[in-house]
Amino acid sequence: EWSSPPFQQLSGVTQTCATKKVGWDNVAYFCYPFTVEMVYTQEDEDSLPQWPVLYFEVLSLDFWQRYRVEGYGSLVLPASPGVHMLTIPTWRPVDLGTVAEMRRFFIGGSPELEDLTYIRVPSTFKGKRLSRFGFRTKTTGSVTFRLYCMQQSKAFLENSALKQRMQSVLDRLGGFSQQSSVYNVLEAFQRARRRMQEARESLPQDLINTSASAV
């Protein structure tokens, strides 16, 4: 249920990079940038989406321009936005015997996968259990990816709009509460003033004149 724009390139090849010694390992810094844009259309709300997978293959090139497969690997793209540093181990298929290793060293070439999806689950597999019995491999190294992931969704917009609406409602309620408190004070003052006037009118006239002269 994933799709990509027609102009999107879903495969590529990096440049050839010379390795250097870092500790006991030979390290190549490819620094190869790539951009992938994918759209997920959710039709069944009960099913969880299967996140996209990035398949990669590492090749080596010697002085005599001979290629060798050094490793295969796969990477499930992160489901959360942000910056992610992921180191993925690699492996390669091997043939038994010294002749196969000598052929690889002197002539070049090595067993390769015809279908890269065999790194995880082959695209042609239809059963329930996948058996790799008899398939011999060898651990070769690792590849580190730095991924910057962004996500866009209408649900995010709806949630932000709902938050803004709630905030505006709270602001209005706060303004109304302030206005109501002012109105309450004014009404209390008016009621107290009316009570004072009624009490003054109910007093005898001579008592009012005496109190006025004393003041």
From TrEMBL:
Keywords assigned: Cell projection, Cilium biogenesis/degradation, Cytoplasm, Cytoskeleton
GO biological process, one term: cilium assembly
Chain segments annotated as coiled-coil in the UniProt record: none
Coarse class of the protein's main subcellular location: cytoplasm
InterPro entries registered for this protein in UniProt: C2_B9-type_dom
UniProt subcellular location: Cytoplasm, Cytoskeleton, Cilium basal body
One of the record's GO cellular component terms: MKS complex
PANTHER family in alphabetical order: B9 DOMAIN-CONTAINING, TECTONIC-LIKE COMPLEX MEMBER MKS1
Annotated protein name in UniProt: MKS1 protein
Organism expressing this protein natively: Thryothorus ludovicianus (Carolina wren)
Originating gene: Mks1
